[in-house]
Amino acid sequence: MTGYAVSLDDMRAAASALHGVVIRTPLHENPDVNAMLGGRLLLKAENQQRTGAFKIRGAYNRMLGLTAEERARGAVTYSSGNHALGLARAAQSLGSSAVIVMPSDAPAAKMQTVRDMGAEIVPYDRDTQNSADVVARIMDETGRVEVPPSAHSQVLAGAGTAALAMLEDAGGPLDTVLVPCGGGGLTAATAVLMAEAAPEAQVLAAEPALFDDTRRSLAAGERIANPKGRRTICDAIMTPIPGELTFTINRDLLAGGATATDSDVRSAMRFAYDHFRIVTEPGAVVGLAAILNGQISIRGRIVATFITGGNIEAARLAGLLEDRTSPSIVV
């Protein structure tokens, strides 16, 4: 396959470069759950990755691609948390430095962990400021190199190593893969991988119901932004608009989109904990939530999804798991 910013060969090269850096996270399957759902459910547990999310894969792979002079100048990016954590760790490990532009309402625990890794945080207001403008100003003033959450071929290749490992460990064909989708990087990389290596599998973007910009953009054939001022418990994928680079891929290769309400997400978080003993942050489980709320058919099929991260403070996790207002499983 040609014409896209990333390829299967790029992902294989990234997997080789990241060997010994990232963890081969497990692909979970529970026969009792399969019997309950009437199909096979596979969960790629990137919550068990270094820095608690898949994002270190792309950030580290991009940092490996910088020259010595670029690393000396340092990196800059924007992130609500998980990419920030991945880039902070990559910069620290490679003797570089990082400045992270983060929304002022990002979880305090994520912000503190980013600082603990030696990165500097520049806060911005997601409702009144454009993070890209803040990053551009920092680049102009400091000469730092941008390492974006998704809009770079090396970042996409690194992210795609999670999908590559999922496909290898599945040991056979998949019917559907749901990818929690914010900027669309992991989604795009997964779509390219499956189109090249497993074209029988359909790939769908999974999003919070109030932040379904990719789903709506796919229907419109062009990028459609989310209305400002909305909020969701899925802070990790609360993005304003699909990425330009990633949407060119997703528009061509995705089979569609699925959504989950905050109540669906809380229910899926409990399901993941009860049946797999997986601790997940809200945004990481929207794919599972879309399966459990009945949007995606699993009966008689093999359906896989990513648990993209587990960076959540204990008190917030306990509160979300104890909330019993969520709907029952409808599969």
Characterise the protein shown here.
The chain is an alpha/beta fold and 331 residues long. It is built from 14 helices and ten strands. It has a six-stranded mixed beta sheet, sandwiched between helices. It has a four-stranded parallel beta sheet with strand order 5-4-3-6, with helices on both faces. The protein is globular.
What does this entry show, briefly?
This protein is an alpha/beta fold and 331 residues long. Helix content is 44%, strand content 15%. It is built from 14 helices and 10 strands.
Q: Report the principal-axis shape.
A: globular
Helical content band: 40-55%
Number of helical runs?
Answer: 14
Major β-sheet strand ordering: 1-2-10-7-8-9
N-end to C-end Cα span: 36 Å
Number of strands: 10
Order of helices and strands: HEHEHHEHEHEHEHEHEHHEHHEH
Note the beta-strand portion.
5-15%
Radius of gyration: 18 Å
Let me know the average pLDDT: 95
Low-pLDDT runs of 5+ residues are none
Structural class: alpha/beta
For the largest beta-sheet, the strand count, sense and barrel status come to:
6 strands, mixed
